[in-house]
Structures are given as structure tokens and as C-alpha cells.
Amino acid sequence: MSEENNENLEELQSDREDNGISAPVNARHNIHCLTIIGQIEGHYILPPQNKTTKYEHIIPALVAIEEDSTIEGLLIVLNTVGGDVEAGLAISELIAGMSKPTVSIVVGGGHSIGVPLAVSAKVSYIVPSATMTIHPVRMNGMVLGVPQTMSYFEKMQERITKFVTDNSNISPKRFMELMMEKDELVMDVGSVVNGETAVKEGLIDRLGGLSDAVECLYELIESGDNKPVSAKKTDKAAKRSVGRPKGSTAKSATPSKPRKITASAVSLYSRDRNGDK
């Protein structure tokens, strides 16, 4: 074995030890795995015992992935309880606006603001045992009992609902029905859906595991199919009730202009709160 190969192996081993990262050596394509776990941390630092994903780490990482010509695709692995609304939507908008193929897979849970994160990829997967909690926006801290507060909540909810329905096959009406369900959650309003139900409702594209998600990402790379998520809106109604066709590799078969990242979608939702869910 040459000295160069030995050095490469040592670097890979160092990555594993320092960051828990295992870089593939003989992969079919060079893809990057991004993990979004625990609670999404926003403008306020969460207690040290919390497992968190910090948006100030994820945002520059996404920019670097988009710019890196050696990375051909992005795999997002989600196991999150939710967290800060503004930070979660900011990350979701960046993923949805990427030109490279993106595939997400929900393992364990994709709750609360994890729902927009899951649907932001061009193709989304969920394992059968995973669950997703859909509920209205909540606020911690002082709340003023004035009409303006209700208007503020409604506007926040509208932005989340619009992003989810624009980037999935679920209708706004059905998403609101799941969100306002009264008989499912203890001491809360909302729904918990498992993997199979999430696909049937059109929230997630496909039911599958890691190998399915990686194979789908390889197919997107090889086909050069880098259409934005919003392109699928043209045939949304036909696919809503049955999920994705087995032979489909992208969320739409109709080309569309790249989805623009708008300032309103990442506006300040949690100005003086410590992590909305």
C-alpha cells in the first residue's frame, strides 16, 4: 500500500474518532450525510443536557455543500423533536433552494418543525417505525392577551402550513385538520402519524430505509434530475392519496424554475422565546 493511501486512511480514521464521521472510500457517488437530531437550537442557547442541532452550524454547512463541486448529492437524516420555528424554517428554505439532489429520511421522529425539514428535500423517505407530530405553533414566556397576539400566531402558522403544503403532496385543508385534532394528544392539540400514514396522507413521498434513500439519491445524481421541490405542484392532486409512484425518482415530472428563497419565509417567528415547537 502506498504512502498516499496510508495517509488517506489515517485521515479517515481521525474523522471517525473526532467527529463520529465515516467517509466512504469506494462509494458509487460522493454524497454528504447531514444529521439533524435532538432539538433545533435557535437564537437562545438550550441547557447543556439537551441534545441539539445548532442552526449556526447547519447553515454554513449547507452553503459549503452547495458550493463544493466534489459533492454530488445530500442525504439528510432526521431524528428531531422540533425546536425553534425560525431556525427550522431557515434551514428548510436553504435545503429546498439547493440545486444539488437532496433526499431526506426520517428515523425515530420528525416532530413539530421537523415536518418542514423532512419535506424540504427533493424526495423524502420515512421508516415504518418513525412518527411525526403535527401541531400548532406554541410559545414560551409572556403572552399578551390582545387581538394582535392571535394575529401573530395565525401569520406564523400560515407560513409553516404554506411551506409544508408547497413542498409535499398534502393539501392545506388536510394538514390543518391533522394539526387541530383534539382527541389524540394528551394536554395538546394535534396528531401523531406513523411512517405508513405519513405516506398515505401525502406528507412524505415514500416508505423505506437507508438503502432505499441512498439508492434514490444515486438515481437522482445519475439522471441529472435536480428540479426543485415545488415543481411537483403541477401533479399534486393525482398523487396525494396514494403517495409516490414506485417508478418515480423525483417529486415531479414537470420542469419548473428554481424555487426562490423569500425573506418572508424566514422572518422572525421567535423573537423572545426559547425554542418554539
* Average pLDDT score: 80
How much beta, percentage-wise?
Answer: 15-25%
Remind me, CATH topology? 2-enoyl-CoA Hydratase, Chain A, domain 1
**What kind of sheet is the major sheet?**
6 strands, parallel
Query: How many helices does DSSP assign?
Result: 9
Helix content: 25-40%
Poorly predicted parts: 16-20, 230-277
- Please name the fourth-level CATH homologous superfamily: 2-enoyl-CoA Hydratase, Chain A, domain 1
Record the strand order, biggest sheet. 2-1-3-4-5-8
What would you say the CATH architecture is? Answer: Alpha-Beta Complex
Q: Tell me, what is the CATH class?
A: Alpha Beta
List the domain count as a whole number. 1
**What string, H for helix and E for strand, traces the elements in order?**
HEEHEHEHEEHHEHEHH
Name the shape in a single word: globular
**C-alpha Rg, in Å?**
19 Å
Structural class: alpha/beta
Q: How far apart are the first and last residues' alpha carbons, in Å?
A: 52 Å
The overall strand count is: 8
